[in-house]
Amino acid sequence: MLYTKLPHTDIEVSKICLGTMTWGNQNTEAEGHEQMDYAVSQGVNFFDTAELYPIPAHPDRKSATEKIIGTWFEKNKNRDKIILGSKIAGRAEFTKFIRTTGFDRPSLIEAVEDSLERLKTDYIDLYQLHWPERNTNYFGKRGYTHDAADFWEDNFHQVLETLRDLKQEGKIREIGVSNETPWGAMRYLEESKVHITLPRMITIQNAYSLLNRQFETGLSEIAHRENLGLLAYSPLGFGVLSGKYLGDRLPDNSRLKLFPNYNRYSGKTAIAATQKYYELAQANDLSLAQMSLAFVNTRPFLTSNIIGATSMRQLEENIASINVELSADVLEGIEKIHNEFPNPAP
Fold first, then answer.
1. How far, CA to CA in Å, does 205 sit from each of 49, 116, 151, 239?
2. For residue 65, which of 44, 53, 85, 245 is within the disulfide window of CB 3.0 to 4.6 Å?
């Protein structure tokens, strides 16, 4: 395993982070425990979860993923060996069963305390805002269209004040954003620069893969110049970059068969690009999944690559991608395909 540090800290994390969003829906508690056991045996010390998980969110499965992690900590007595990230859900119609408000002070305090109880821990290492409160382009929206009726009022300062207080109480150690835009990322960073008592956002958890490299436009410069570390999610595009959907296949129990609305990575152009990437991987004796993950692993703005799996075979292959080195020819081939199909699944 390779390791790096969360920016601006001495917290060392594995460059492969174990994602957990299927536990409690597609995966049982026992399977979640098995995945954590195996990941730790391979040197993974970084887990990422959220109060919203499992996905798709549903009242009957509310926060089941955090509970599964909590029972694993309780069983193994190894909380101090794991760097744990979680998130507060943003304000949205589909999260009303969690709470209706966004990141106001009572909501942030309630979210953290509830997560701590489910996770059976006294602290969360990295606490993240799952998506912006304001109307903006995230979750696959290509561009920003201003909404004059947006309910949101600028509250960056107030959010950071509450997070500062939670840090001072020892309930969270560091903070990050997720599904954030360049403007939002810089507003948080500038707020903490101007008001030095406020905590600094140290990571940004956004989608990044061969099918979606939009992070490279705007956000990658911020990542470099401000040392804001990317935690890349969906590096296999909901499994599309495993190649299992090529040839119009729809495997049983696959995400797209179970949840057809999760189709942002499976449009016509994205599938055409995936076919090209598959052919490149095959020509170089690589699996498409490992080539796709290895590409993300080597990006200079990456802090950690969040992999997820519903089977142990998938998990083993995904974690092993950390040992895959891509040749100059493969990297050149990737760029040629990217130029032909730039960001087909944003």
1. 12, 21, 24, 18
2. 53
